[in-house]
Amino acid sequence: MNIVILSRNSHLYSTQRLVEEGLHRGHDVEVIDPLKCEIIIEKEQPKIYYKDRYLDYVDAIIPRIGASVTFYGCAVVRQFEMMNVFTTVTSDSIVRSRDKLRSLQRLTKAGVGMPKTVFTNYSRDVEEVINSVGGTPVIIKLLEGTQGLGVVLAETKNAAESVLEAFNGLQARVIVQEYIKEAKGADLRALVVDGQVVGAMKRQGKDGEFRSNLHRGGSAKIVKLSEDELKLAMKASRALKLPVCGVDMLQSERGPLLLEVNSTPGLEGIESATGRNIARAIITFIERNYK
Ligand SMILES: Nc1ncnc2c1ncn2[C@@H]1O[C@H](COP(=O)(O)OP(=O)(O)OP(=O)(O)O)[C@@H](O)[C@H]1O
Ligand SMILES: [Mg+2]
Ligand SMILES: [Mg+2]
Q1: Which of 33, 50, 65, 280 could form a cystine bridge with 21, CB 3.0-4.6 A?
Q2: What is the pTM of this model?
């Protein structure tokens, strides 16, 4: 099979691991920077031009589209879809997953537990917003933040007000969320491939940090998920039509609560915490489904 990994950087751990496992399984694997692809639109002849050639021989793609290049990256993925090339995640589901509000709205319908969340355009009274998620402390987060940046814990009404004011001044859209303190600065990341959980880790924020992101200095260890946690991860993957994804959850007194679903989950943290070969699971998923 000819597999293309759409990634801006062939030196990234996740990209390298996918190349390695693809080659190991006997495939031709190529890393292509989606930003260097030209999309050619013509009646019944969708094409992609890259460097000196047309990419008309590709059987499957693995999009590794960073948040900063969602628009162009997804246009390239969509073009491959028009050319009937198999993709591990579709352009529509990547776009959808980038917006936390949009994802959570969809997931409420799928019966997935989540922290109580309010979306506001700031025309409402801040006190009312805070009360509607159960009072302070509250979490305020950017709709399109990543790696824990743009997630703020506001302990008091005054703090919440200033933060909302600041984001509002920057014309940044945010959600206000109930703070799950029982989670104690930890969260769960379930790696889903082919709709099944193939590995899970618990991430703990460094001392005094409520955000458990590895990029913010958190540490990870392998964890065995409960039945409810497994179910939630698989439900979320199905509801957002992301057969390959990273599902983040918080452990609360009322069971697991979904935080977000990542369509380009990193492999380094999860492979080293669990010792599982996640990259190979992604390649064999393609083998089973690409026809
Ligand atoms: N409602 C909440 N209650 C308690 N802790 C929270 C809450 N929301 C987020 N956190 C903590 O902050 C971290 C970052 O939040 P979130 O995953 O929503 O943001 P992100 O920036 O998109 O992160 P990622 O890099 O995983 O995409 C979470 O992993 C969790 O540890
Ligand atoms: Mg995220
Ligand atoms: Mg997260």
Answers
A1: 280
A2: 0.94
